[in-house]
Target: Glyoxalase
Amino acid sequence: MIGYVTLGTNDLQGHAPFYDAIAEEMGVGRMMDFDSFIAWGRPGGAPGVALTRPYDEKVASVGNGTMVALEAKDEAQVKRLYDIALANGGSDEGAPGPRGEPDGDGNTFYAAYFRDRDGNKLNAFCMVKG
Model:
């Protein structure tokens, strides 16, 4: 089971507001806040997301193919999270919309993709019945 996902940053305090805004939309806040590490989520709840300066004190870099997926409650929240990300210095990696074909139960994967100010890739998604 995943407890949390950690993303590297070279500017913890400068980039934390991006995640504060995303977390607020998802109904959570900071669950840990240290000089070199901030985690958002709910203790004992769903997996959280953390932003940290690298322990080895080298420059943080983006993992190619690495992405954090944030489960939204519905299509409207996917859109809000995407808009919040862009309004807080993030960049577009794919506007909100359906992806792929419906599964065997008629559910469609609905998602938006964006990057934070460090270049870490995230998405907001939900399954849409129909």
Summary: The two ends are 29 Å apart (CA to CA).
